[in-house]
Amino acid sequence: MSYSIRRLARGDEAILARLAAEEADFDLDDRGEPLEALSVEAARAYLNDPNVLHWVAEEGAEAGSIVVGHLLCHQLRMRAGTAVELVLYEIGVRRSERRRGIGRALVALAL
């Protein structure tokens, strides 16, 4: 199956909640556990923050799509040199979808 990659945006609060609930499936084996989802208000603030760059790789029809990978980066303002730096904070690919190039595609998009 093929997948598409897009940046999370306003209206994707439910995806953030699913990622939190399914955290263990995106982490290393025997690591990770379900996380507490952000409140709706906090999720909206996260999705509206221009310095938060969070992409998801999705598979399936739009209404029934499943997130197979995600990449979270933060844009940081620097005091000297390059004005802005991108920090890769978190990357995860669903355990059953690994070794398909999803993580590489997410990183390539961020670069």
Shape: globular
Structural class: alpha+beta
Strand order of the largest sheet: 1-2-3-4
Proportion of beta-strand residues? 25-35%
Q: With helices defined by DSSP (H or I, 4 residues minimum), what is the helix count? A: 4
Number of strands: 4
Mean pLDDT over the residues? 93
Report the end-to-end length measured between terminal Cα atoms.
25 Å
Reported for the largest beta sheet, the result is:
4 strands, antiparallel
- Outline the low-pLDDT stretches: none
- Helical coverage, percent range: 25-40%
- What is the element string, with H for helices and E for strands? EHHHEEEH
Structure description:
With 111 residues, the protein is α+β, with helices and mostly antiparallel strands. The protein is built from four helices and four strands, in the order βαααβββα. A four-stranded antiparallel β-sheet has the order 1-2-3-4, sandwiched between helices. β3 and β4 form a beta hairpin. It is globular, with a radius of gyration of 14 Å. The chain starts with a strand and ends with a helix. 18% of the residues are buried. The model has no long low-confidence stretch (mean pLDDT 93).
Would you kindly provide a brief summary of this structure?
The protein has 111 residues and is an alpha+beta fold. The chain has helices spanning 13-21, 23-26, 40-48, 102-110, and strands at 4-7, 52-59, 66-77, 84-93. The two termini are 25 Å apart.
Draw up the topology in text.
Layout: E1 4-7, H1 13-21, H2 23-26, H3 40-48, E2 52-59, E3 66-77, E4 84-93, H4 102-110
Antiparallel strand pairs: 1-2, 2-3, 3-4
